[in-house]
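Researcher: Quick one. three chains, 323 residues in total.
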Amino acid sequence: MKRTKKLQKVCELGLEAVPPFNFKYTVYKPSHFPTKLEDFDEASETMYRTLRLGQDKIIGLKMADLRKARGKDGIMAEIFSNRKLTEQDLQMVGRHISYAYGLNEDIRPFYKSVANDHSIQGPIQNLRGMRVSCFENLFEILIISSMLQNTTVKRTEQMMENMLSSFGGRVDYDGKQLYVFYTPKDIAQSSEERLRELKVGYRAKFLMEIAKQFSINLDLGERLKIMEFENAKEELMKIRGVGPYSARIALFQYLRRPNEINFDSWKRKIFSKCFFGNENEEVAKVEREAKQRWGDWMGYAGLYVIEDLFVRNPEMQYWRKKE
DNA sequence: AGCCAGGACGGAT
DNA sequence: ATCCGTCCTGGC
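Model:
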């Protein structure tokens, strides 16, 4: 059991976003299964989230709407840490937040491109300014994708919690206790048998391989960011344990490619119902229809539909856990 | 008890 | 190119 680290407040960082910007639903996605890596406080509309900087610096963030503080679109981030931070460190934190939440992306071309599709206008009105969020690095998002594979969300949550409580760091700041994601080395130094005890099943082997890859290949994520999407997809699928499903998650979330979406079991049902009025249409048909309506913005449109559904029906979380 | 769902792989076709 | 058995766990 790792000791809890107390973090002290270092400073604040105001990060502007290209308008329109929806703070709440950019930093907080109701459809995402909860982990103790972050905590969204509904009452104060504040997002707490941890981040690792290099080997030994741990960051705790407390993020709020920049509009409240300065009347501008963006994020006001209070930064907590276990170490003294240099100017360069702060720049890295700022860049991470900006990229993770797509603050510099202009999403108006998306709205324009789907203006003729009636079915998406409600979600766009309700969530206007929402972007894809991916606070994870490539290693982390691939671990999460692996745990989403071939199982139910309920079990994914269990696997995440088991792995985080065994290998993750623990921090305490501003009255919140959160985990910090483990590093590739933390896993690589462990063993497949140990992972199996944490109920990750046959994934143990894959998780171990991914961890070993990333403990050698530290900048794979950055390399993929400057590649063509199709080449990046190929590179991702060279990693054992990463197939089309996981690659798509990484492409959509981490690389921010706007047309990627997996019509997995529960999304297939939702979109089948949405397009055809019944839950039973097959994946290929659902995918064809989505492509037809939303073209290259298929992933983004899907995100708006799903998040809107979860915002309006909080009980969706419980429905999905069974799927 | 046995059977199934959920991705990825690897071997067979 | 497509199909099939296998990996693992929890739920029926």
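Chain A has a mean pLDDT of 96.
Researcher: Thanks, that's what I needed.
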